[in-house]
Amino acid sequence: MTRALKGSGFLGLAVMMAVGLHQFVILSGGSAVPPWMIGGHAHLGVLSILAIVMGFAVPALGVTGTLRTVVTVLFIAGQWGIPGIVWLGEGFGLAFLMPTGFLWGGALIVAMLIMFYKSITQPADAVGGGPAAGIPGDD
């Protein structure tokens, strides 16, 4: 499951970069980039970086079983749903999709609350829960 989070994160960054290049082409042609395109681009970028971080945080916090699946599915749905509805709703005139933003945002919030719960309830000596071992300097 963490492979899905990391993979979704890297794919999201690639899509975000492609959209960024498209925005550059628009600007180079002398036109303004539509605000809906900028908003979707920014959200996909940030959420994709967080998906990669989540891919490492889930096993570090010992999230397993059904909770691991729930966190993964909810986060990936929110990662793509938030920018997707901005692009589809505003950019392609499918405004009836805009209320689903509450669904995608809710999915992200629930995933984060599960991670919050796991982060405060794991024992201090669990994987990722204790102090980091000192790493000798390379000087």
TrEMBL record:
The keyword Oxidoreductase does not apply. InterPro entries: DUF8059. Residues 1-139 form the DUF8059 domain. Keywords: Membrane, Transmembrane, Transmembrane helix. The chain crosses the membrane at residues 42-63, 70-88, 94-117. Pfam families: DUF8059. This is DUF8059 domain-containing protein. It comes from Halorubrum trueperi.
